[in-house]
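Here we describe the complex-level prediction in full. Unlike the single-chain runs in Section 2.1, the two entities below were treated as one system.
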Amino acid sequence: MITFPRTKGTQQLIRSSKSLLVIGLSVLGGTLSPVSAAPITRYFTINPIRICNTAGTTCAPTPFFPNETYKIYSQVGVAPIFLPIKQINNSSLLTVNGVANVSVPGNGQHPNPTTINAWFANSLNSAPGSVLYGEAWLGGNGLVINGSAVQSYPPSGRKDTFAHEVGHNLGLGHSDFGAGAGNNLMTAGSSRLIPGGVGDITPDGANLSQLTASQKTKLLASPFLAPVPDVLIDTRGSTPFDSNDFFLVKFNSGGASNVFLKSLKVDLTPVNAFFDSTNISPGNSSSPFAISAADLIGLSASDITLEGGNEALNGQQSMTLTFADNAFKAGDSFRFGVDIDLFSGIDNFGATPSELIGSLFSFVFSDGFAVQSALDADLTASSTLPNGLPTFVGNPSGGANVPPGTITDDPDPVPTPAPAPLPVLGVLSALRCARTLRKRTKIARI
Amino acid sequence: MSKAHLYSLFLVIASLATAPDAGIAANKMPANDSITLPPASRVVESKNGAYRFRIYTTDNWRTPSPRGTFSVGSTSSGQRVVWQGKLPHPYGPRFTLVTKVGDVILLDGWLNIKPAYAVTILNASKGSLVSFSYEDVVRSLRVSPSVLAEKARFGSWWMTSKPSLDAYENLALIAAGGKMLIVDVRQAKIYAKP
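The structure predicted for the assembly as a whole is:
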């Protein structure tokens, strides 16, 4: 009796049920890529709504595949932000025909009109001989996912359905703006190639889930997108010891009008270092947190608060600065310093900039956008270069009213010219060049 | 004018009368992500009519697991089932060929995913089965997955053309990634056309 082998990925020859000869063809690597390091310029917020039975005991799966969705939209510099999952208990909505059945008032919609409502039903009715995985308003607010079908799609879920439906909300159809190829995100489900994970998504692997230039232009004009505030962290000198200007914090641009930075957290855990802000153990030779008065631009020292002060900071691996409301906005900057020691060399020279690579900087902005970035090899970190998925603090608000279901795909909108590129990269390059010219003399520790 | 003609005329007028509303309704329909499932039963027969392979569902595709049946003999002379069993391709293979000597070639899978079973050669009479994965195809063609996907059609990750058999039905030929993949049925191997 011939049976198909369970082993996958190799050439196999079966002569009978008792003999098995495996001819050794190696499997190509299938490693997954980390979250893309491409700069983000815009973000949108998602309000996931899980539908459960009326008793609230049985709920639809919620396969929104955040890593895949993030990587897909990173090709256009847009980040999805998933708000906490809401739950509505209504057995009659566990199986629905489509988005029109769920996007009615009272079904868990977010009050912000530009936060995309994403319902997860247990299943969607479809025509005989077909499977409906998701449905969304074209250019409108709202989508519904067939949770069980998307979750169980072989081999590990239909990874691009959520991003595909969001694409409809952002104004993209199946055959407009250059869609239609198998490797395009918006191509119809019958002919679109489904990525098995982030390793298959552009620019990696099979280079799937692509967006054309026209699609990107159309997408970037969506009212659902909000601009990402661009705050840069830079370093100068050879050590933060005895310094009040080792770190530069510069609010370059971006963000909605009147957005300000609310807090900045520095986390030294990844580099196994701590803040040595007083002459008390673990480090006895220290220098406190201090702000350079000469480098304050657009804000004053009294607008900046070190949570807990220097005494509480000493020996800690994380430090949080908070800013007065409306104090730290686009165009503003300041510098600060504080002694940082490696646990492997307490009271030695102090952490050099290169030893701080990997330190984490967490930004929380007044519009709720929150992101964590790592100090990279260029000794900078930026709120536009997330280390992991951006999040949201509080509830999104504001934005144009985009009612669900009133925008159709006929006639197709005319693509608008691409917006001028943001000057982020130019500013980064200039700052990096400047840093190399002003390296400070090393200060020996006594 | 006959009654039939009158009824046809009525249908035409009725369709014209309802067309504008139907059009507006269609435009208001949201966009979706869906696929068409294969028929409940597919039968592929060799050109000489001596062999046939049937792919079918036993639960109307409530689960994606198909079964296959290989039978010998023509419809007129009577058929004998030689092999039957589960197929590993979710919803079955995308394409199937049956040669004049009873080799069955299953190509790709119905779903638009990276196929674990890109090429399978089954000879039920000999009791042999050879399977090649997507990675085997990539290695044989020496083409990157990106190029394969770019040139692929039908929702396949690698096939540019539908498969065909050569005149002797010893080889199956599939355009892929700008090259030609040869499936040597007799030797049970795959390679790129030199």
